[in-house]
């Protein structure tokens, strides 16, 4: 069975491929379809944006589409950068610039005021059917300087206390066990078979 990742984000796609590697699911993405444009994220919540991406691509390509909308939430910054995480410092998207803006905005914060969490909402969609929605969170703190060379986005600043590492210091396989996206995937895995069987998706030869 093929699942289309409704994204051009190489970091996210790499994580999803790793998560699905021991399943019967073949992962494709919008990188395999260069003529398909990225869906504009006009929602005000992670779920709204994930729905927009998954449902639009599902209908456009007539496939099962999986979209993630995720971001970093800092309560001390009134929830910023939130749904604007990828564009926090403006267009074009730039991880380094986003991280620098976050450090500047949090320069005066200490201790518990540096708490933050990553949130991921996954939406699995198929044309003319109700979408499956799940979510996951990872709690941590924002460091005062970048640490680690792996990952993407805010990973070099996001310290995960349980592992005493930032997400960027962890091997991908390790991050994929405890990240917000991993936790959302765990929820998805619990529900995906029931969702598909209820929709009789397995009977559609186009997506087997």
From TrEMBL:
Keywords: Hydrolase, Magnesium, Metal-binding, Nucleotide metabolism, Nucleotide-binding
Signal peptide stretch: none
Residues that hold substrate according to the record: 7-12, 70, 152-155, 175, 180-181
Protein name: dITP/XTP pyrophosphatase
Co-factor: note: Binds 1 Mg(2+) ion per subunit.
Top-level taxonomic group: Bacteria
Family matches, as Gene3D superfamilies: 3.90.950.10
HAMAP family to which the protein is assigned, alphabetical: Non_canon_purine_NTPase
Reaction catalysed by this enzyme: dITP + H2O = dIMP + diphosphate + H(+); ITP + H2O = IMP + diphosphate + H(+); XTP + H2O = XMP + diphosphate + H(+)
Annotated positions binding Mg(2+): 40, 69
InterPro entries: dITP/XTP_pyrophosphatase, ITPase-like_fam, RdgB/HAM1
Taxonomic classification: Bacteria, Bacillati, Bacillota, Bacilli, Lactobacillales
Biological process, per Gene Ontology: nucleotide metabolic process; purine nucleoside triphosphate catabolic process
Active-site residues per Swiss-Prot or TrEMBL entry: 69 (proton acceptor)
EC number(s) on file: 3.6.1.66
Quaternary organization: Homodimer.
A single MF term (Gene Ontology): nucleotide binding
Any one annotated GO CC term: cytosol
Family: Belongs to the HAM1 NTPase family.
Task of the protein: Pyrophosphatase that catalyzes the hydrolysis of nucleoside triphosphates to their monophosphate derivatives, with a high preference for the non-canonical purine nucleotides XTP (xanthosine triphosphate), dITP (deoxyinosine triphosphate) and ITP. Seems to function as a house-cleaning enzyme that removes non-canonical purine nucleotides from the nucleotide pool, thus preventing their incorporation into DNA/RNA and avoiding chromosomal lesions.
Listed cofactors: Mg(2+)
Entry annotated with the keyword Phosphoprotein: no
